[in-house]
Amino acid sequence: MKRDILGVVLCGGESSRMGRDKASLKMRPGVTQLERQLSLLEPFCNRLAVSLGPASRAEREVPEGIERIWDLPEWEGPMSGMLAALKSGGGWPVLAIACDMPYLEASDLLQLIHRRDPSRLATAFVASDGLPDPMCALYEGAALEALEEEAKSGRRSLRRFLKGPKVERVEPADSRFLASVNDLQELDRARRALRDPRD
Ligand SMILES: Nc1nc2c(ncn2[C@@H]2O[C@H](COP(=O)(O)OP(=O)(O)OP(=O)(O)O)[C@@H](O)[C@H]2O)c(=O)[nH]1
């Protein structure tokens, strides 16, 4: 069921380890990583957007009808993308996922949505290193002010923010779905593991 949530695929990085734009790489024949992530968010979100940064080359990959949200020039990194997304969201919660997390499934997003507590600032999965993962998390509209304070005080880490109070942390039984792909070998492994028998 769709909700008043802004679903955002983070595509603002440099993709330096991959050596080419990660969003545009095909997960399956005819389906880019970006398209796959948008289709995961689509059933849950009344608005969909792609988060773009100054170093990313993903703008041309954004399908028609999908919003583009540019990082705020005064900040850097994914923190800048989240601040821009929350501003664009106008108070709506933002469900943010990275473009390079191919193992993520709709059921994982549903788990986040079900665990959501709107009186908190965010709901985030805890990864295998025991730290919350900012690349698959639901940020409440009220997180904007708190994140701005973090950014202004020089603390520009989303992970650090998610370790703080008023954040719901969800420990999955198996956190492998949070793995990201950063080089062609990892991408190939993911393609093989997720191959659709119809392809
Ligand atoms: N909006 C936005 N997204 C970012 C930014 N940096 C990274 N991301 C996204 O965050 C996710 C994880 O990024 P990383 O793998 O840490 O960084 P990357 O730049 O994509 O890749 P590397 O250059 O190899 O580190 C990806 O979906 C990126 O597109 C940024 O500055 N702005």
UniProtKB/TrEMBL annotation:
Keyword Metal-binding: yes
Binding site for Mg(2+): 100
Co-factor(s): Mg(2+)
MobA-like NTP transferase domain span: 7-163
Keywords associated with the record: Cytoplasm, GTP-binding, Magnesium, Metal-binding, Molybdenum cofactor biosynthesis, Nucleotide-binding, Transferase
Record Pfam families: NTP_transf_3 (PF12804)
GO molecular function ontology, one term from the record: metal ion binding
EC number(s) per entry: 2.7.7.77
Location of this chain's protein in the cell: Cytoplasm
Family the entry assigns: Belongs to the MobA family.
Purpose: Transfers a GMP moiety from GTP to Mo-molybdopterin (Mo-MPT) cofactor (Moco or molybdenum cofactor) to form Mo-molybdopterin guanine dinucleotide (Mo-MGD) cofactor.
Protein name: Probable molybdenum cofactor guanylyltransferase
Organism the protein comes from: Pelagicoccus mobilis
Top-level taxonomy: Bacteria, Pseudomonadati, Verrucomicrobiota, Opitutia, Puniceicoccales
